[in-house]
Amino acid sequence: MTAPRQPDPRLLAILVCPMTREPLRHDAAANELVADRAGLAYPIRDGVPILLIEAAREFVPAD
């Protein structure tokens, strides 16, 4: 099994959450981009972030 392809760090530096317009945090272990304030985690598939609110997974942010 191969490791998931990681997105370009330059791309990650400019991406924002489509809901809040705040920067996203990269969670390499889960292969997701996380929007803590929105409580959403966007998947990364084949190195491409899927920034659709409908594709995001909801979670309860840690305080």
What is this structure, in a nutshell?
10% of the residues lie in helices and 27% in strands. With 63 residues, the protein is mostly beta strands. It is globular.
Structure notes:
This protein has 63 residues and is mainly beta. The protein has one domain: N-terminal domain of TfIIb, CATH 2.20.25.10. The protein is 10% helix and 27% strand. The radius of gyration is 11 Å and the shape is globular.
Descriptive tags:
63 residues; mainly beta; N-terminal domain of TfIIb; five-stranded antiparallel sheet; 1 helix; globular
Principal-axes shape call: globular
- What is the typical, i.e. mean, pLDDT? 90
- Sheet with the most strands, sense and barrel status: 5 strands, antiparallel
Per DSSP, what share of the residues sits in E-state strands of 2 or more residues?
25-35%
Poorly predicted segments: none
Work out the helicity level: under 10%
Question: Secondary-structure map with pairings?
Answer:
Blueprint: H1 9-14, E1 25-27, E2 32-35, E3 40-45, E4 48-49, E5 57-58
Antiparallel strand pairs: 1-2, 2-3, 3-4, 3-5
